[in-house]
Amino acid sequence: MNGFSDADFDFSFLEEGFAARDIVEKKINEVSLSDDKDAFYVADLGDVLKKHLRWTRALPRVTPFYAVKCNDSKAIVMTLAALGAGFDCASKTEIQLVQSIGVPPQKIIYANPCKQVSQIKYAAAHGVQMMTFDSEVELAKVARSHSNAKLVLRIATDDSKAVCRLSVKFGATLKTSRLLLERAKELGVEIIGVSFHVGSGCTDPETYTQAISDARCVFDMGAELGFNMTLLDIGGGFPGAEDAKLKFEEVTTVINLALDKYFPVDLGINVIAEPGRYYVASAYILAVNIIAKKVVLKENDSDEDDGAKEKTLMYYVNDGVYGSFNCIFFDHAHVKPLLHKKSKPDEKLYSCSIWGPTCDGLDRIVELCEMPDLQVGDWMIFENMGAYTVSASSTFNGFQKPDIHYVMSRPAWKLMQQMKEQGSILPVHDLTANTLPVSCAWESGVELPNTACSSAPIV
Predict the structure, then answer these.
(1) Contact criterion met (CB below 8 Å) for 194 and 153
(2) Residue ranges of the Orn/DAP/Arg decarboxylase 2 C-terminal domain (predicted)?
(3) Of 207, 296, 322, 323, which has the fewest CB atoms closer than 10 Å, so is most exposed?
(4) Contact predicate 192/229, CB 8 Å
């Protein structure tokens, strides 16, 4: 990659002492007297960089191939490309996206086991050789359509403890794997390795151990048939938010032990992974505005307070499940609203529900939560909104997608430039607590100076 050169991509510098949450507050304050209170994102590209540094420390043997489907924002793709990551693409459009910013085909794996013939031919014409398969039909398709393909056999895993299961749709059993390898030999197709995916939102790190062990068996099968298999793809499933039940380092410790046992370094196997939410979940903050409100009064059956009525509140905001909150349906997400307006210590809380703006009764974001009595024009904030949100949102009912405002601290930008120039992580630098911006103005009503963030196009 030659660097950031897209004129449409720009970000704002975070000045020292400020964080992405402060920019959310600043933008809310800017529109406080206006009727134009559209939902918006603030995305911290420095958070993506911080995740990359954490990855290289925790998984030094594993090269990340970012799963584009998780968040296909061009700014994210450009940032990860500058950091030297590869890319897991599932379609022609995703391949076009990453190649449009100069990513070489060697850093792309077409990791969709069920590909349209025309898109296989597109990959062939544009130099993308690594691609996955898990069936004889797919093997035959690739053999006919891509003479230079380097195939990776995807095996099934036990993903019963994952939030989003994938092996119900993809992956070959060990028995089927042998048959597929034999068929590939007959067709003269090159098999370079094995891939698996333990499921999105994996909750049991030992699943990786079994999957890596199974991959070792398939490598041995391949060796018996004369294949020179040099690639292991351990897929995704890595947590992206700090409040996840399973911590990132818990997963990586198990992976490293399994790799050392089944694929020791001296074998020279190239190990890659397909992280998605890990990189982008925590980078995005979404701010939504209350556009309507309904007060529902319910008769109280208590004999002690005869005639009293219990109040519940329904809030309607300007983004919903057809937009950013599609993650609720597609990714089994459980979102938690934070209030922009600071609550009083003794403020009464009410049973509330939160709804999106469309005319569909399914457009419910939160079924039940407790919040104060808020008003139309007040704001709610949702953190950890970078994964499987913007990439799958629609404009159903004519509601537009929220704007995304990208930010980055100056130390993060400087480090990214150094890494881009040298092509590797610089061991003498890091984004520690001494260099990362710490919020100093999170509370509502604190006006940020104009220098809190200054526009700086990436060139």
Answers:
(1) yes
(2) 40-386
(3) 296
(4) yes
Instruction: Identify the CA nearest to 280 among candidates 28, 64, 37.
Output: 64
pLDDT at 83 over 50: yes
Give every CB contact of residue 16 below 8 A, 6+ residues apart in sequence: 409, 410, 437
Residue bearing tokens 């068996």: 217
Distance between CA atoms of 401 and 379, rounded to whole angstroms?
17
Q: Which position has the token pair 């990586």?
A: 252
Q: Using the Cα atoms of residue 211, residue 217, residue 221 and residue 227 in order, give the sign of their dihedral.
A: positive
Residue 430 CB neighbour total at 10 angstroms:
16
Structure-token pair, residue 36: 């134009």
Predicted confidence (pLDDT) per residue in 311-336, tens digit: 999 999 999 999 999 999 888 888 99
Other Cβ atoms less than 10 A from the Cβ of 72: the count is 17
Confidence of residue 420 (pLDDT cuts 50, 70, 90): confident
Query: Among 415, 116, 97, 117, which residue's Cα sits nearest to residue 108?
Result: 97
CA distance 424 to 84: 7
Start-to-end CA span in the chain (Å) = 13
Write down the H helix ranges in 265-316.
Answer: 277-280
3-state secondary structure of 125: helix
10-19, 114-123, 139-148, 394-403 — which is least confidently predicted? 10-19
Report the half-sphere exposure of 206 (CA within 13 A, side-chain side). 2
Torsion of CA 223, 224, 226, 229, to 10 degrees: -20
| Integer CA distances (angstroms), 223 to 120, 178, 218, 229, in order | 27, 11, 9, 7
pLDDT (tens digit per residue) in 100-151: 999 999 999 999 999 999 999 999 999 999 999 999 999 999 999 999 999 9
* One-letter-per-residue 3-state SS of 390-442: HHHCCCHHHCCCCEEEEEEEHHHHHHHHHHHHHCCCCCCCCCCCCCCCCCCCC
**How far is it, in rounded angstroms, from Cα 406 to Cα 117?**
37
CA distance 296 to 306: 18
pTM of the predicted model as reported, rounded to 2 decimal places: 0.88
Q: What is the amino acid identity at position 387?
A: A
- Helices 248-262 and 206-224: crossing angle in degrees, nearest 10, is 30
Residue 206's φ and ψ, nearest 5 degrees, are -65, -15
Tokens standing for residue 12? 């704002």
